[in-house]
Amino acid sequence: MNDPQNPKAKEPPSTDVPVEEAVAERARAAGVATQGLDWRNVILVPTLALLAGLFVGALVMVFSDPDTLRSWASLGRNPGKALSDSWTLVYEAYSALFKGSLGSPRAISETIVSATPLIFAGLAVALAFKAGLFNIGAEGQLLVGAMTSVYAGFTFDFLPGPVHVTAALIAGFLGGALWGFIPGFLKARTGAHEVIVTIMLNYIGLLFVNFLLKSEIFIRSGRTDPITKPVAESAKLPPLLGAEYRVNAGFLVALAVAGAIWWLLFRSTVGFRFRTVGTNPNAALYAGMSVGGTYILAMVLSGGLAGLAGASQLLGVQYSVFPGFSSGYGFDAIALALLGRTHPGGVVMAALLFGVLRSGATGMQAATSIPVDIIVVIQALVIVFMAAPELVRQIFRIRADKQAEQDTLSASWAT
Amino acid sequence: MRNRGMKPWLIAMFLVLAMFAAACAEESTDGEDTGDDTGTEEEALPGEGMTACQVTDTGGIDDKSFNQTAYAGLEQAQEELGVEAKFLESSTPNDFEPNINAFIEQGCDIIITVGFLLGDATAAAAEANPDQKFAIVDVDFFDFEKGEDVVYDNAKELTFQTDQAAFLAGYVAAGMSETGKIGTYGGINIPPVSIFMNGWLAGANYWNETKGAAVEVLGWDGKDGLFTGDFEDQDKGRNTTESLLDEGADVILPVAGPVGLGSAAALQDAGEGSLVWVDTDGCVSVEEYCDLFLTSVMKNMNIAVYDAIASVVDGSFEGGLYSGTLENGGVGIAPFNEFDSQIDDTIKTEVEELQQKIISGEIVVADYL
Amino acid sequence: MKVELRGITKRFPGVIANRNVDLTLIEGEVHTLLGENGAGKSTLMNVLFGLYSATEGEILIDDSPVNFDGPNDAIAAGIGMVHQHFMLVPVFTVTENVMLGVEPTGPLGVLDRDQARKRLLDLSTKYGLEVDPDAYVEDLPVGVQQRVEILKALYRDADLLILDEPTAVLTPQETRDLFEVIKTLKASGRAIVFISHKLKEVLTISDRITVLRRGEVVGQTTPAESDEHALATMMVGREVSFEVEKTPAAPAKAMLEVNKLSVLDDRGQLAVSDVSLDVRAGEIVAIAGVQGNGQTELVEAITGMRKLAGGTVRLDGKDVTGQGPADMFHHGAAHVPEDRQKHGMVGAFPIKDNLVLNSYDEKPFASGIKVERAAVTENAQRLVKDFDIRTPSIDVHIGNLSGGNQQKAIVAREFSQAEVLLIAAQPTRGLDVGSIQYIHEQIVRKRDEGCAVLIVSSELDEVMSLGDRIAVMYRGQILDVVDRADATRDKIGLLMAGSRQKDATA
Amino acid sequence: MSTAAAGLPGGISQKRARVLGLVFIALSLGIFWWFALGSESGLSSTFKLSSGNEFVTVPDLSLPARSTALFLGTIAAFLGGLQIARGFGNKTYLVLGAVVLCFILAFLVWAARDRSLNMLGMLSSTLLRAVPLTLGALSGVLCERAGVINIAIEGMMLTAAFTGAIAASAIGNLWIGLLAGIASGALLGLLLAVLSIRYRVDQIIGGTVINIFALGLTSYLSARVFSSYQNLNSPGRFSVIEIPLLSKIPIIGPIFFSNNIFIYLMYALVAVIAFAMFRTRWGLRVRAVGEHPKAADTVGIKVLRVRYQNVVLGGMVAGLAGAYFTLGSVGRFDENMTAGRGFIALAAMIFGRWHPVGAFGAALLFGFADSLQNKLAILKVPIASEFLLMAPYLVTIFVVAGVVGRARPPAADGQPYTKE
Lengths: 415, 369, 506, 420
What we know:
heterotetramer, B: Rossmann fold, D: 420 residues, 5 strands
């Protein structure tokens, strides 16, 4: 990063003053712009991004449905039919989606169940983002966390209920934290880019867990396929609405953790340090903050949160680990962090939204036979629009907000 | 500037859409005559108004093998009994439970869960919903902690003694091998997979014992062996098969659903060796590779699934174990198809005899492991 | 060749960088653009070089209008530019850098390196610009890199050569060499544009001088018709006094004692070797020197931002060797960093947070790990008032302020915290005269309060007007420390070029 | 590092050289301990080196297991000793390669003791495994040399695999499928370029988005389309092309010259890209853009155009890599069939130091690890295959962490360029 030729290094540009004056001009125009929550930034753009995502998703549905395509093919003969067929298809799909996620108590319960691990995982990525780190490794951290958690879950069964659950959650946190520590440490000590390291650790974690699943310690007795022993009853997160519904105390833990992370980020000195390191590591160095230490701490916390995602899924829903335990939560988490604007409150909202999509998609497929994968498409589109707010502004023709701060994470791999 | 910037993106998007649209539209004309003929007969069928629903494991409904065979049972029921067939694909194990629940909400008359890995989820659902009928393929509920068998009144367990049929296939393969090595690999080391491999190994061993030969089985030793790790990565199946070929195996049994298609590709490129397909007759499900299939170890899930649905329709459904065997036709080996002429009549007769001996209990597969 | 700029206006969103500028450049003439930082010199030349397109106005070459769509067109028209920050690819060889963009090629676009190398060597001999064509640029000293830049322009047959602040990185000796080259080029019939704000150089080399202020031409003159004072007045727009009003220093005990300090730079080379220096309470020690002679590393080492390779640092009698910035801060040392945007502030944070950037975890701004927001706000309100930071609110992101106000904010934070030692590196770089004066006053005030003050500046004027003692750095060493009373511009200038005291007096 | 001497440039590399020497010694000890002592004496390992199709049939190579391992261990120990004593200067990496090779050979000898191993088959499978990795890595080289990080290789490959399959099936021509795959890769390349250049979306985020999008879209469409139209998923495969004469050369022939079109395209692309990148005007300009875009701009190179062009080209190469899966390997598309190989390709690119040939070498190494794990299961070697599969990922971490010497990416890699 100290390369003098590095164009990103913020040396005073050669055309110093025009730019500076332009900036000053903008500040004047902005008037009393505050650091507080600009509604346009926080609500409008994500909402529009979601709408745009749903719209393009609808296009994909229409153009991949054979029947609707046929009516489009005969557009000349019967133009109304093509449109009404398309509308019916999309309407049915989306209404099945929302009915499947919000239409009944069970549906709502399932939505919350889907959202719970997403909250943790989204917070994990968002927290790292704030410290200037792109944690693509939530997937691996989640798995390792689930492993340590399940171990605590079936081993410490002598503990009384509440203590056991807590211990298993903490074990999950520690497992994920360990997996997060590695990229943090390597970044701090050698400058290894965390994106590469976390991608690699995802695979290493997955393979390692696959290995452990077959080991004597973990494998369920009487089974030859890789599946762990189930956690003890005392380690299960208690259901919130009775045994009939899967929604469990994990959701409350997630909300509490989100609150704690918010406080940590915006009201504590630790958060101040994270944000300083995240936006300007050079200034952090100058101000006497330990940049490396902050990277390590941020990755440990981030990994821990991802580990909690695994633990909450394990202790609240699945009760044992098996291949495919984490089905892409780590990647969803990136989407969530972006959609939630790396703000814990935003992440919770985004996770609930994704929960709606995820749990509703099953109902949608059952009712309309539109494959569930459409929601992945929608999610990806939403992130595109979130990551390129300018695109959304162009489409919807809204003014840029004055004090947007763009996180830039891509630096060279090996710096 | 503002609008010009939009263009490449939009164009990209629409090109993608247009491409798929073109591909689909073109095919839809071909598909029209086959796809649209439901509801032409107005005669009321016994299952009219009922629904049969299948939850797949992670391999997908069109896997040419496992899920597809089971679904064939549903389609047969749709055609002959008039029930409505539905399916939900599970892309990850986390989908099992929501998928089952979605069908419960939909009011399916019977939910067929396909695959060993759905065992826990199905057991839980069957216990929680005593009025909902289930059929599960490949699982015999068993409580390992208490060491006792479990039976639910509302869940039919459809299991298959595929080792019996695989035994026959292994015997033929051993007889046909020129290199003295035959191979096998699986998707995941779970009982419904390893049972094939056991039968295969036992069949070869039986050949060695009766003929005084020394045919070696690569990839399975009765406990552990060669596994690709999932039922999806066909390229890995190809890789694995190439390794088996390299080490001299010339008849290979892939027990990994669609991953086996990678084996077919490998064999075709290598121009040597033959395959034994599983679950269904390969010459029917993957016609294009028919010249590679020595035979197939058939696991007639479609029949069992159809029977289960039929029993719901006629009200005779009851929970418990169904075990497909050579005797009841639940398992079997497929015709030798294109290899028919190459196989000695003696071997063919011996296979017939072996089949009878297994049915009669004279030969027990497990004895030859 | 004659190049005319007529009525050039360049607008950036919200700001006008050039307004209605006319300029005529003719062959065989060195035409200087003089102006303060931000007067619009570079912008104007970037317009001429095709990097920016003018909002209004036209460019004429030999009386016919031209339209430059990019540097390509400008290059084709015979215009070459040596940028202030060199535009060289560090991992390429000299030859590769010189031929980039106009590569001689064989069939299939295969590079003909030999041809390029030969032409380069020819040019290098012709104009006395000695370089090794196969050396990698990153291994070359700045002076040589500048030669490569000039060769790059000559390689493209530039008839008009724009040199943007070429002397900023050169020692007086290297500057003299450069001037020789400029004279050769002039003699070969080229037109030269020389951009600078250093009045003495301008008077030495120019044939004609155009002064820009706030984007507009405010006057044109020749060295014969003008002098330093007149140029300065024109440049700033009012009478300026470069003298800082201050009383003689009253130094007390040594607050900062640096002993035999050695420091490595980012590439692992020795940037500072065996430097010893002390700064006493109540005096200003100014470190002079051409930039890149180890001043940056020295300051970073003293303030704990950079590891030491050897030596000791004592602060107020305590050994603080190897301690980090936070420790130095606790011992009462404050530091205005050289690069304010890179180190001094977090642009995306509000002013109030920037004002506690290095004390955020101290009482009263924090208790435990909780940030005391009321205290942070109170501190900001006080400093904004005391240091006259012009901002609509303390919640505005500091990145949105003007450079002068950003620097004031940093000065406010540091000066309010300095108890024992104040280090300020290039404290007025890039600022307008008003801000410069204000900051100079504050520095002197701090000295008078009894703080030990260490200033680093590559502006000789600043060093001369602020320093009570002047230390000159050259190639990582302090050649001499001179009392202000004994210092003359010549003496310091010679030291900056590396001549030892005894040679200088001889 | 408190003294100036230890910090001098020579000092650092000397220290690293020592460490490396110790690593060599450790590897040689490993060879002695595991492979020499682990092989019961008197056993020999047989390596098959012929497919029977060559001019001359190479006889099987039979080696005494223990003494071969001892021999290899001694070489490694010797090299380690030399490394500590005097170092190898700029040949260090060759020596490192040699020691690793000794270790691998010793391992194979041990694994194949009292058995036979088809060396030829393993090498040719290594090459085949390396195809998508090499092509993916070349895609990365093209993008990153121009300063755009491409972590969307995975998504591009997956999409191309899908489009290749569907187009070849629908039209019934493999070449059309290949072109469609390349075109879809180019399209995603364009998308990445537009996002990262036009909209200045963080390149890693942009790439991640494309990966998610590609996975979602291909899964959705394959579920939607292939379940009802199975004939759209039977594109067929390119058949093996035996290069006349060359394919008959013992050992080399069957490995290198008896393969399908993708392998030959891979050779060609590695050579062409390596040549073009370092010997032509185009390459010089691309590298200038990736190292110092502003400098390139001031000499009249259209920085953004070069970036667009290269990212699209990179997309096309990734598209070729993707088409390999459906049209070269298995002849059928399945959800997520690239299974993370795009990320390994990325690792190969870094391991290969952003150089086409280096990337090819790295891909071969990774391909070797991949093909080895099957062999071990067949040979019943008691090592969990998971650990073998981990090897490429671990190696990559070591590389980015600078354990084996720091890789130096293009200086402007990942940074958006704006002209103000």
